[in-house]
């Protein structure tokens, strides 16, 4: 493995010191100057203009193509890729090379990090990794995973455009709300990647809350629907054990309403019967039994309401509120039901196949770059292909701030409490974007109570304050707890594993035949340099190059500085271009 450390020099030049083997296929010269065709071109001030808009491809509809992109999209084109057996449409931001750029043989796919969208790769015309790469001749595409950015659930182009516009407006609204010192969660929401007001409230509150007026027929219908959905395992979204766990939680909450009362025994009798019914296969008889038992539960509560006992005051309203909250929880479980392997097995392959069809590279291969989780996905793809003896159809790979073992990352250990499977049912999704936007004023304004949050994102003086604010307010989305649960396996002895835990994605990287450039930042607290280097060592030595950016006395690189830091265009981007050019 070749180890390189980069130091700041004159614009678009780097001094590279070799630390070990020279048997690497990436051989930059000492004090080298990039060939003219590889040198960065100053980005156009109008590179975010929408004057060169092109129609959306007819990815899944025969209707006339949409010709106007949402305002948040700064790419040349916005494409949508349908996921098989799903109503998800994945957004692909495309950046065309200018006519004067050097010709390239392979398209370039960019993959973003956990809970982020495409904006991190295209913060501004002066700090756009995507624009830089397209300026170097690469037909550049950014994938937004399901639930992120402009990726939406839609069945036709009209519905797709409405959803995409709503996402764009929501992102802009959050930024405006923080600028005006208004709580972000008060903004209108309800689109993919963002929580509605009621959903956000549900995830914040753990109490029963204030109920609504008593409506026996409605409550019976709602209880029946809940238990029917659990009996059907939420149409495949829940396993049998998960269904049992969540139904137990609901019944426990109802039981608390009846504690220390003469009705407890009657409730327990119904509870046992319901539990038995929910274990059985769904059919018309079971459905009838569920409705009858739901009616009996409501009748018990109604009997308690007529009791003179003080503890039954407002019990009907509290039951109504409990049922309403539970319905929201079931809806969230369905809405945010995906994990890391869904990205790996469905999202990334669908995007790669679509890009191949659009660009038609002669050898059918792509170049790929992944930041943070995006790089982890590329590692996992190479590992899985190695274990199955398949060709990954990637010409070369660059990872930035990515690893498969995060035991040395202290900030990320806050994810560990979510490793309990029950947590994914109690809190199906984490509104990370909304929470970060709410915390940002405390991190960026005196007295800087949460100033340490900035250090996780960018090193001191490495990102312009306006770009840092745009990154924080516009780049992050809601994260499914199932996704977090799988990623927490990266803190175990085996490193990141597939959802069953049987396959460690570290185990088969030694079988990879794809050249890899693994980049780390010297002050990255989320993915420390030692984690990046340890993962790089798992590849065949002649195919991997590890590079560390930053110097003891500065400048320093934190997690996002490798993509959007003020020196990235001078130091990081040219290095990536030269590496990819070796294999294009």
From TrEMBL:
Pfam families: Abhydrolase_1. Residues 44-58 have a biased composition (Low complexity). Residues 34-60 are annotated as: Disordered. It comes from the Eukaryota. Keywords: Lipid degradation, Lipid metabolism. Residues 342-561 form the AB hydrolase-1 domain. GO terms for biological process: lipid catabolic process. Coiled coil: none annotated. This is AB hydrolase-1 domain-containing protein. The lineage of its organism: Eukaryota, Viridiplantae, Streptophyta, Embryophyta, Tracheophyta.
């Amino acid at each position: 493995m070749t180890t390189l450390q980069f130091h700041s020099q004159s614009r678009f030049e780097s001094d590279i010191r070799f630390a070990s083997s020279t048997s690497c296929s990436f051989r930059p010269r000492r004090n080298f100057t990039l060939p003219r065709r590889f040198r960065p071109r100053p980005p156009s001030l109008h590179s975010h203009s929408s004057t060169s808009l092109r129609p959306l491809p007819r990815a899944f509809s025969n209707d006339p193509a949409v010709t106007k992109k949402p305002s948040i999209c700064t790419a040349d084109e916005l494409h949508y890729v349908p996921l098989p057996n799903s109503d998800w449409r994945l957004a692909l931001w495309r950046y065309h090379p200018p006519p004067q750029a050097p010709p390239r043989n392979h398209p370039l796919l960019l993959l973003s990090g956990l809970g982020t969208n495409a904006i991190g790769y295209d913060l501004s015309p002066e700090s756009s990794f995507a624009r830089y790469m397209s300026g170097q001749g690469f037909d550049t595409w950014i994938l937004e995973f399901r639930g992120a950015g402009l990726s939406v659930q839609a069945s036709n182009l009209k519905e797709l455009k409405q959803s995409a516009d709503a996402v764009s407006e929501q992102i802009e609204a959050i930024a405006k709300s923080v600028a005006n010192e208004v709580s972000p969660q008060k903004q209108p929401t309800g689109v993919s990647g963002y929580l509605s007001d009621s959903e956000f409230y549900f995830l914040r509150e753990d109490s029963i809350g204030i109920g609504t007026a008593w409506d026996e027929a409605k409550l019976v219908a709602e209880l029946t629907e809940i238990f029917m959905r659990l009996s059907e395992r939420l149409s495949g979204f829940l396993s049998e054990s998960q269904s049992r766990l969540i139904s137990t939680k609901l019944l426990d909450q109802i039981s608390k309403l009846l504690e220390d009362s003469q009705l407890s025994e009657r409730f327990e009798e119904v509870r046992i019967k319901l539990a038995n019914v929910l274990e059985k296969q769904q059919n018309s008889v079971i459905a009838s039994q569920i409705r009858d038992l739901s009616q009996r539960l409501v009748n018990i509560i109604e009997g308690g309401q007529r009791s003179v006992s003080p503890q039954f005051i407002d019990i009907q309203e509290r039951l109504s509120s409990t049922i309403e909250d539970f319905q929201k929880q079931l809806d969230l479980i369905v809405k945010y039901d995906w994990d890391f392997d869904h990205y790996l097995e469905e999202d990334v392959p669908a995007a790669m196949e679509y890009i191949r069809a659009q660009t038609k590279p002669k050898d059918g291969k792509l170049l790929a770059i992944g930041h943070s989780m995006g790089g982890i996905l590329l590692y996992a793809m190479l590992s899985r292909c190695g274990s199955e003896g398949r060709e990954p159809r990637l010409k070369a790979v660059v990872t930035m701030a990515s690893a498969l073992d995060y035991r040395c990352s202290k900030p990320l250990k806050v994810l560990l409490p979510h490793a309990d499977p029950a947590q994914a049912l109690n809190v199906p999704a984490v509104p990370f974007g909304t929470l970060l936007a709410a915390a940002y004023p405390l991190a960026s304004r005196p007295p800087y109570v949460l100033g340490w949050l900035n250090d996780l994102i960018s090193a001191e003086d490495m990102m312009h304050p306006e770009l840092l604010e745009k990154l924080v307010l516009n780049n992050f989305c809601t994260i499914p707890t199932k996704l977090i649960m799988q990623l927490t396996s990266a803190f175990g002895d085996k490193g990141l594993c597939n959802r069953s835990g049987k396959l460690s994605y570290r185990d088969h990287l030694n079988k990879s035949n794809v050249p890899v450039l693994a980049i780390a930042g010297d002050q990255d607290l989320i993915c420390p340099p030692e984690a990046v280097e340890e993962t790089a060592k798992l590849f065949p030595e002649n195919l991997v190059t590890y590079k560390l950016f930053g110097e003891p006395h500065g400048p320093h690189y934190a997690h996002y500085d490798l993509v959007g830091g003020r020196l990235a265009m001078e130091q990081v981007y040219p290095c990536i271009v030269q590496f990819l050019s070796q294999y294009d």
